[in-house]
Amino acid sequence: MRHVLILGGTTEARQLAAELVADPTLRVTSSLAGRVARPRLPAGEVRIGGFGGPEGLARWLREQQVDALIDATHPFAGTISFNAAQAAAEVHVPLLALRRPGWVAGPGDDWHDAASLEEAADALPALGERVFLTTGRMGLAAFAHLEDMWFLVRSVDPPEGTVPPRMEVLLDRGPFTVEGERELLRRHRIDVLVTKDSGAAATAAKLVAARAAGVPVVVVRRPPVPAGVPVATDVAGAVGWLRPVPSAPKGRGELRDQPRTARR
Q1: What is the dihedral of CA 134, 114, 121, 154, to 10 degrees?
Q2: Mean of pLDDT values over 88-114
Q3: Are residues 39 and 13 in contact, defined by beta-carbon separation less than 8 angstroms?
């Protein structure tokens, strides 16, 4: 029986676990960071909490005799991805990154690219005064100096640390609808949206609503996958990497290599 460790927490991670546990030749363990109070648990074995850096993860891989490691964390969970790359290389365990495709601007979108939360904050004064901030509960300190701006912050759990002085918190979890997002923009008189390029349809409705309302969007770019780590863009691709499967229909199960020059 081969042991597969999924670094998860995302929708794709849960879908992958459900797919793999049906295989009697696999032992499937999903690891969750524990940052969400009530996480949606995947099928199979589950562990919650950190490993203690790349050394701790490497030790866990050895002790639990892991045969394959799949990094299906959030596209912005950069630290664990680099820890996984280092640990997998140390213990010679095959590693795959499962990353949903990012969003792509379309006709009518007014998107402004940002390399970080700090850069996104710098762009805001020229774009609006009432901000819909959907970058999560952490990292709000980057916007705390914008004392003349008002923020609607949406997150699954309450924010932590330093936050903007003029702020309203909306605790909610996707998926969201376009109609609901349009009403939210209207009710709170939002004139600029800030989001991370997390991809996926569950939270894309806000982008459609912003386009319809003529609201500019500041999009924070996702960090690169560690150099040399192969990337699957969907669950079918991850399954295909893990075990031989019949040829998938064209456009499904795409697997690509990250450019060697992409470094953080």
Answers
A1: 0
A2: 95
A3: no
